[in-house]
Design brief:
The chain has two domains: about 70 residues; about 170 residues, Rossmann fold (3-Layer(aba) Sandwich). It is elongated, with a radius of gyration of 28 Å. By secondary structure, the chain is of the alpha/beta class. Strands 3-2-1-6-7-9-8 form a seven-stranded mixed sheet, sandwiched between helices. Strand 8 and strand 9 form a beta hairpin. InterPro entries: SAM-dependent_MTases_sf (IPR029063). Pfam families: Methyltransf_24.
């Protein structure tokens, strides 16, 4: 009886030891997994924090350049990012465009106007956003910006893009800013700019594209620089990716 009880106890102890070891291995595996997850989360947090800090730096540099008389609307979500807006300001002040054409109005329109762009034509398919831009410009004392609001037109090849009537009088564009229409409107939504507006550029024009981290916009940027053999493209590591296509030095 005693021997049987002892065997039972030994068996129970052996089972307990095996179970403890198995639990220990499982805990170690879970600990490794949790550690890896925490490390990954920390990495993502640091990256996001760096992005936020970069945008904050861009705002800090942008505001003194613009000398605003009223608050800026939010620059998150659909709006252009501060680093993109800062590039718009720098390029505009550098090239001093006589005619600027912008696809998609918003804060960028105000930045262009405050940075010295002489004549601005901004195309927008949204009555809501176009009207908001007009009101924002008025609140900042900006007059004379030509915001052309018209619903997208269906072209013969089936895509929808800015209406032909909105191109009236546009020629010799010195600065072309491509930040519309939204990608949700078509596949390759912004690609028609290559056909309809690139031929209207002046010889020393500069083209700026937002969102070039997206495949569609990068494809458009590559096509534009290919169509302009006297130009070079610089990709800026902005929040959404910015392409600046400008004349080669000395051209």
């Amino acid at each position: 009886m005693l021997v049987a009880s002892l065997i039972t106890v030994i068996a129970a102890l052996a089972y307990l030891v095996r179970s403890t070891r198995a639990l220990h291995r499982k805990v170690n595996r879970n600990a490794d997994r949790v550690s890896k997850e925490l490390s990954a989360q920390t990495g993502r947090f640091k990256t996001e924090l760096a992005h936020v800090y970069h945008q904050f730096e861009a705002v800090e540099q942008l505001l003194p350049l613009l000398k605003l008389s009223a608050p800026l609307p939010p620059s998150r979500g659909w709006a252009a990012s501060p680093d993109f807006l800062l590039t718009l300001a720098h390029v505009t002040k550098k090239v001093r465009p006589r005619l600027t054409v912008e696809l998609g109005s918003g804060i960028s329109t105000l930045v262009l106007a405050k940075s010295g762009a002489k004549k601005i034509v901004s195309l927008d398919h949204s009555v809501e956003f176009g009207t908001q831009t007009r009101e924002m410009l008025l609140s900042h004392g900006v007059r004379g910006v030509d915001i052309r609001i018209h619903e997208l037109e269906t072209y013969s090849r089936g895509y929808k893009w800015y209406a032909r009537s909105t191109f009236k009088g546009i020629a010799k564009i010195d600065l072309l800013v491509i930040d519309g229409p939204p990608s949700s409107t078509n596949e390759d939504a912004r690609y028609p700019a290559l056909e309809h507006l690139v031929p209207l550029l002046s010889p020393k024009a500069t083209v700026i594209l937002d969102d070039v981290y997206r495949d569609e916009e990068r494809k458009l940027a590559d096509a534009i620089v290919k169509a302009l053999p006297g130009h070079v493209m610089t990709i800026l590591s902005h929040e959404k990716g910015t392409a600046v296509i400008s004349p080669r030095t000395g051209k």
